[in-house]
Amino acid sequence: MQQYESRSAQLAYPVKTVYDFLSDFTHFEDLLPEEEVDNWMAHDDSCSFEVTGIGRVGLTMEEKKPHEFLKISGDSSAGIKFYLFIHIVENTQGGSVLKLVLQADLNVFIRAVAEKPLKQFLDMLVGHIETFDFEKGIPKSFK
């Protein structure tokens, strides 16, 4: 299985606030780029949506370790299974540090094409998470 990591994000919110928000899939729609996502459906522990150029993606919350990490399993209409780990730790200023890790079992042909876009996607998602107001449940630009 190949592993792709995002950069670390410094968040101004306590670990508990970030974890509580991210551990519920009904909040995820606002974290994904709306221009890339259609047909969003979510419940507490599962969601599905269509991504432009990729197709249908389904996510299931596999494991939760309160205030530390989330393990999400996913599959796509392209037949690719993957795991997304969300790691959250407290920083010294009372905020938190978040990092995303994606594990996917990609064949050599798909890996050559997908590696750069996967890394870019993780960094884009982290960038979007950094702009989020976790207490209000909206991007900071909508304050």
How would you describe this protein?
The chain starts with a strand and ends with a strand. The protein is globular, with a radius of gyration of 15 Å. The chain has 143 residues and is of the alpha+beta class. It has a single domain (2-138), classed as Alpha-D-Glucose-1,6-Bisphosphate, Chain A, domain 4, CATH 3.30.530. Strand 5 and strand 6 (69-76) form a beta hairpin. The strands form 2 sheets. Strands 1, 2, 3, 4, 5, 6, 7 and 8 form an 8-stranded antiparallel β-sheet that branches. It is built from 2 helices and 10 strands; from the N terminus they run ββαββββββαββ. Helices cover 22% and strands 43% of the residues.
Q: Give the name of the CATH superfamily.
A: START domain
Structural class of the secondary structure composition?
alpha+beta
Biggest sheet descriptor: 8 strands, antiparallel
**What is the fold-level CATH name, i.e. the topology?**
Alpha-D-Glucose-1,6-Bisphosphate, Chain A, domain 4
| Number of contiguous helices | 2
Low-confidence parts, pLDDT < 50 over ≥5 residues?
none
Q: In percent, how helical is the residue content?
A: 10-25%
Distance between the termini: 41 Å
Number of strands: 10
The radius of gyration is 15 Å
Q: Tell me what the CATH architecture is.
A: 2-Layer Sandwich
Q: Output mean pLDDT.
A: 88
- The figure for the number of domains is 1
Question: What is the CATH class designation?
Answer: Alpha Beta
